[in-house]
Amino acid sequence: MKYLSIYMISFIMLLFFGMLLFLGGLYCLTSEYTLFIEWELVSMNSLNIVMTLLLDWMSFIFMSFVLLISCLVILYSGEYMSADYKINRFIILVLMFVGSMMLLIISPNLISILLGWDGLGLVSYCLVIYFQNIKSYNAGMLTALSNRIGDVFLLLSIAWMLNYGSWNYVFYLEFMKNNSETLILGGLIVLAAMTKSAQIPFSSWLPAAMAAPTPVSALVHSSTLVTAGVYLLIRFNILLEYYYVGNFLLLLSGLTMFMSGLGANFEFDLKKIIALSTLSQLGLMMSILAMGYYKMAFFHLLTHALFKALLFMCAGIIIHNMDNMQDIRLMGGLSLMMPLTSSCFNVANLALCGMPFLAGFYSKDLILEMVSLSYVNLLSFFLFFFSTGLTVCYSFRLMYYTMISDLHVFSLNFLNDEGWLMLKSMMGLLVMSVFGGSMLSWLIFSTPMALIIPKYLKLLTLIICFIGGFMGYFISNISLFFFNKSMSIYSVSYFLGSMWFMPYISTYWVINYPLFVGQMMVKSFDQGWSEYLGGYKLYYLLVKNSQLNQMIQNNSLKIYMMSFIFWVMILYLFLMNL
Beta 35-44 vs 47-55: how paired, if at all? Predict the structure, then answer.
């Protein structure tokens, strides 16, 4: 039981600092106080290297949420990963991950943002390949390389910031409004954020990252890695209002939301369905951010972190009890055998759907009503509301398969709710998933937002949710034989379920042509002309010369005498010249 010390100490420290930062965020929010700290690291002649920290209500509250969710995830990991002999290494990796996210949150400087950004990428690779099998290695490489694209865009934006004289972007945000160079900087920042938050066409790495342990998934998909891009754009929100950068982001994030919602309805892997729901919610955050409502994006970011972490923790317990089986078709009747876990799972699912008075309702309903009130085109309006219907659809489908249908595994099973540490960590998130949304709405929006829209638009969200829930239950009851009967229907469902072939485009399509060219080069050069003119030719000449030499020295007395006479003559001529 050596691991008890390190994970309990980590839990207590993170909980303490999380509560402290939340109180600091409340103070900054109520008194409109912002702390800007410059810490001089190196001062030599005219060289000054200064570390800058930005502490305002937004960074304080986000850091407190990251720390509070992390402490519960570490408590959960103590029992979930108890069979792992190297659990200390796992806890240290999680702490490094959280530290990188904290550095990114408090940085108003692109250089220090890059340090946190790269730290997230590197540690996420280590966590994704943690189980050390072929699937993990492939997923880790896809995750790392996809995120490296974002790092390149961030490096280019750092180079472009040299036009302004400093990398502290907060000094220049107001000035950037009237500057034509903003277009390039805004485009680079948006592309960097799109890779980190897995928007189209960089979406394939997020479901692949499910190869990581479930506690890591709970942390990554709620408040760290995937939210880094959204948080960066919240800080750069002024850039999205100009030069059509926001319109570009609105289209791609709407399509991401739509694509992931469709894909989740055809998926049977429990963790992958929840991962695709994360992708859908990231698309929603990016969409409303592209429309200019950065406070709403931040609000949904926080509420989503609460119920998504809870959803992954419940999924982890279910997978644990199902003997590491993740196919939802084999699950069923869990509400009878695991009532506490099932209750948490259903609350988190309903919060994801936007069930009234749970955490997700306050942010999602506000966002959709603001979309109804805003000046958006028909395509964006359709993507927002249809994707919301798809979210409810796959959530009810998931609830049907796991809670209502029959258990389709062996008759002898030991499903139970006995993981007390895991249940305790889930209880904290359960309370926050119920009360967190209302609390945050009172804090972030100082005055209640009363949106005056027609009754049919007011009820549209509710109607869409009811239709989505009914469709999810209806689709679950249809026999899968119907889908497999017709090849055309099967092909369409495969296309929709595979994220529009994006994983293949990101892997096989990218690597196929270079591998083909490499094969031709090996065939033509390494094993072709270079072999014929190089090693093979040299071997051929050596063999021929050796045969000639052997023939010359084949005990022929005449040849020996002639060669001796020639040697004596050459020696005589040489000595005569001396």
Answer: antiparallel
